[in-house]
Amino acid sequence: MTTDVTKTGAAARPGLFKRIRNSDVWWSFTRSKSAMIAAVILAVLVLAAVFAPLIAPQNPYDAAQLDMWKAELPPIWEPTGEWPYLLGTDTQGRDMLSAILYGTRISIVIGLFSVVLSLLIGMTAGLCAGFFGGVVDNLLMRFGDITLSIPTILIAILVSTVVRQMLPDDLREIGAAAVLVFAIALSSWVQYARTVRAQTIVERNKEYVQAARLLKVPARRILAHHILPNTLTPVLVAATLNFGMAILTEATLSFLGIGMPPGQPSLGTLIRIGNQFLFSGSWWIVLFPVIQLCLLVVVVNILGDWLRDLLNPKLR
Fold first, then answer.
1. pLDDT-based confidence at 279, cuts 50/70/90?
2. With contact defined as beta carbons under 8 Å apart, do 100 and 88 qualify?
3. What gap in Å lies between CA 221 and CA 158, rounded to an integer?
4. At a CB cut-off of 8 Å and minimum separation 6, what does 209 contact?
5. Rounded CA gap, 188 and 148, in Å?
């Protein structure tokens, strides 16, 4: 019996891999050099951030590992550079490579969770507005219009500042990442809500939804099992594109001083710290975090554009 199950599992895996290789997604991916290069770069950036404790020469969040005597060392290829500080150190003796790896991890986590939270809020609002209509639709969409009338970064700044002031002093640094996720999500849910609402209005008038209503199927079951799956494609494309924007928003908030604290720097915090020494000769403190942030956002946007083109039936 065990041998048969093992053989069945072994036979299923090649079949799965074969289906992936024969799929339209894989065919389109292998025909797009830009998507392949972007995917490889993104995988390297993500893996380096995940395994930062194993790669980085030091833990930049541990003050005991910082050496002020090694402050503002240039990169290793400069005459006064020292090993193992490949990209030099900042004004606190923090290894720049370590800070960038750990900062990338924070930026990716905040961007990912903020997109997921805004996706949940937007999809819930869009489903309710499109399915129930009437007063519910008007209230949710008018609130969305008000949100869109204010620039995204201003909403994020307002929410972040208010929530920070509500927290006790000893929790402000600990909860900085959660505050950023909440602030970014509240400023970017409307796009998902409008997309899902439009799809829901189309789906609710179709025969299978009308039949489910006649059978007295609960509304939450109709929304979750019948309408929601048909609205996921455009929403997931928008989420992929907004992932890079969420990372930029977090970097902007941190650059303005209302994001991650200097003790737990994200890429935006590192850029803010390094910007103060841009014209003092310590150019590496700001240059390398900027390059990392730009590279991360660019590859995410390239993959988002490829996914949008792939799922657009007009381009097939």
1. confident
2. no
3. 36
4. 203, 222, 226, 227
5. 9
